Amino acid sequence: LLVSVRRVAPRFSIPPSNHEVMPGGSVNLTCVAVGAPMPYVKWMAGVEELTKEDEMPVGRNVLELNNIVQSANYTCVAISSLGMIEATAQITVKALPKPPTEPLVTETTATSVTLTWDSGNSDPISYYVIQYKPKSSEGQFQEVDGVATTRYSIGGLSPFSEYEFRVIAVNNIGRGPPSELVEARTGEQAPSSPPLKVQARMLSASTMLVQWEQPEEPNGQIRGYRVYYTTDPHLPLSMWQKHNTDDSHLTTVGSLITGTTYSIRVLAFTSVGDGPPSDIIQVKTQQGVPAQPADFQAEAESDTRILLTWLPASQERITKYELLYWEGEDGTQQKVEFDPTSSYAVEGLKPDTLYKFRLGARSELGVGVYTPTIEARTAQSSKCLIL
């Protein structure tokens, strides 16, 4: 009696599969091989035997990996008298990305900075985050999220200001550490605000001294100032007389017509262009007459009281201030005189009513130019009507 036995070379019915694990993670690699005769199954890492020769199981072998800290390849080997086969599983340890290279500033404008950088990572990066803040700020970084390229322009910055920038790479695990900081200064613009606290006073009957403070938003290095003056403030500014000066905050203007009221405006300029001119102030070309009060403001303090404030004129021999005020558009004008000060409260007013004010300074030689009209409304009455 002859018996036929079928012989089959080994093959994998369940080959080992690739895995991604977190640092310090664990995984079980399963390998199943079949054949006739049934093959022995062992695991190897490179040339290292992970399964002892006298402990090789038949058909199925499970490799337990714990505390995995680096990526590696593991090979399952199936052996029978009919041959040997291999299958390799790749274990990849997931990790946060490395920091990108230090960014390079490739372009600046008055309101933007363009950065470029290298990924610094061989593995894929999902996107980048750019962090930035003014160099002088102790606050938190602002962020631009979801940047898909290694070149980006950050806009909305302040002109002529120093900023710090850094870049963070993000993968499917999370954010990596930031790159080194890079600093950049934005470009200049023309000033976006006028000089502050413009004042003028007469040094003689035909020479005036004009002084001011730097604009709140210079947007660059102030190269100088232009003082415009005229006896007819209704003319366009281009037709006013012009006096240029350097970056100092005062100048004298001579050869004026005596006994005349002049209107004055001042603007600052950078290397890029001129800023806006200040509001009109006025001065009378009469020696010894006080200058127009500067920075005249009104604020309601209650339903019957409005507080007026202004800048006290320096080096002026003021004996009295004269205040004109009236209700609404055409109310009866009231006049009040009081001793030199820098504030005055008008009381006994009507609730929820608009009042208008003008202020002038007087010396022994006469009254100077009054301020332009300003206005303020008293608060609503706080009294309850009892029925």
From TrEMBL:
Specify the Fibronectin type-III domain's residue ranges.
99-189, 194-288, 292-381
Coarse class of the protein's main subcellular location: membrane
Q: What is its EC number?
A: 3.1.3.48
Keyword Cytoplasm listed? The answer is no
The GO molecular function terms of this record are:
protein tyrosine phosphatase activity
Where does it localize?
A: Membrane
Please name the Gene3D superfamilies in this protein's record: Immunoglobulins
Name this polypeptide is given: protein-tyrosine-phosphatase
